[in-house]
Design goal:
This protein is an alpha/beta fold. It is built from eleven helices and 16 strands. It binds 5-S-methyl-1-O-phosphono-5-thio-D-ribulose (MRU). The site of 5-S-methyl-1-O-phosphono-5-thio-D-ribulose has 18 residues, from α3 and β9.
Length: 351
């Protein structure tokens, strides 16, 4: 029932997580949840210009690979509407699309979604809007489809209860509405197969502590927030029997790029002999990138590491290294599960 508006295009309502859609369309502009304010405040923000959309993507007001893909596509729709209103040429919309495609470099979904709506530009704004909404709807359908397939696989590999280690936020907030790894947690929960979920806080921007915990709370599951450094020990001590994460880009050989801190979990999982399962839509797969070394890993501001809120926590003059993502080599990846298939990179299977 809660998903009915997806099928009926009725506009913003409440998703399975109890949240409004992460990214939505409201006639002539986009609407996003400002994720920087969660969990203290649930604020919806109207996005009426490409500059506003790029800024929202860069400051992680909208974040998560599938969600920034949908946001990028809607950004092109915003540009197409502005072009018609202001009498600008089609070439201008293409330049705006170029700017959107590179707002963040790592998640391939952004570039993929912008290129997917680009052919509609020459047919006018309504065609671009329709193309963007199709990407949103496909992402929602993907979340629903992948949940069942990955839950089957995880129960098969781990038995029950499944005690999950996760990292960052791969939930409804990272996608248009449903989620990737956390849609599997939800499916396990409703099957009565879920034990506990260990949630890494995910320094420096705390997507785990702020966003995944928020979603787990709304779902009413048993979860614990832990510092990132505790994840490998939770695995070694047997507190969890499965790692479930999302991805920002998966290379042709099965190397997985995801939020920094995923790789140590994969090492620990391999050592402990538990599955490391990556859940992602097909739009996150990048067969054009041969392996993880060819993925551009975004480096973000040093201040995200050096400051705690407004307060400096390091000695004056301290420098920081702040890669937003890391790459887990294919041989450590037990499975990549999409809405269409299961790939086993550690068995040498390629995309
Ligand atoms: O920097 P973020 O918050 O955009 O990073 C997000 C992640 O790393 C997620 O795990 C990934 O995008 C998968 S979301 C389904």
């Amino acid at each position: 029932l809660v998903w009915n508006h997806v099928l009926m295009n009725e506009g913003p309502q409440i998703s399975p997580s109890g949240l409004p859609p992460t990214v939505d369309w409201a006639g002539d502009h986009a609407v996003i949840i400002d994720q920087t304010l969660l969990p203290a405040e649930l604020r919806l923000v109207a996005i009426r210009t490409v500059d506003e959309m790029i800024a929202a993507i860069k400051r992680l007001a909208v974040r998560g690979a599938p969600a920034i893909g949908v946001a990028g596509a809607m950004g092109v729709a915003v540009a197409a509407i502005a072009a018609e209103r202001e009498g600008r040429p089609v070439a201008w919309v293409h330049l705006e699309a170029d700017r959107l495609a590179v707002a963040r470099p790592t998640a391939v979904n952004l570039r993929w979604a912008v290129e997917r709506v680009r052919p509609a530009i020459e047919f006018g704004a309504p065609a671009v809007v329709a193309a963007a909404l199709a990407i949103r709807d496909a992402d929602i359908a993907s979340g629903m489809a992948v949940a069942a397939r990955a839950a089957d696989l995880v129960i098969d590999l781990c038995g029950t209860p499944v005690n999950v280690q996760t990292h960052c936020n791969a939930g409804s907030l990272a996608c248009a509405e449903v989620g990737s790894a956390l849609s599997v947690v939800r499916a396990l929960h409703f099957r009565g197969a879920l034990g506990v979920v260990h949630v890494d806080e995910t320094r420096p921007l705390l997507q785990g502590a702020r966003l995944t915990a928020y979603e787990m709370n709304a779902l009413g599951v048993n979860y614990r927030v832990q510092v990132d450094g505790a994840g490998p020990s939770a695995i070694r001590l047997g507190l969890v029997n499965c790692v479930l994460i999302g991805a920002d880009r998966i290379a042709a050989n099965g190397d997985v790029c995801n939020k920094v801190g995923s790789y140590p979990l994969a090492l620990a999982a391999a050592r402990a002999g538990i599955p490391f399962v990556v859940v992602a839509p097909e739009s996150t797969l990048d067969p054009m990138t041969p392996d993880g070394t060819a993925i551009e890993v975004e480096e973000r501001s040093e201040d995200e590491v050096l400051l705690w809120g407004d307060r400096h926590i390091c000695p004056p003059g301290a420098r920081a290294w702040n890669p937003a993502f890391d790459v887990t080599p294919a041989d450590l990846v037990s499975a990549v599960v999409t809405e269409a298939r299961v790939i086993r990179p550690n068995r040498g299977e390629r995309l």
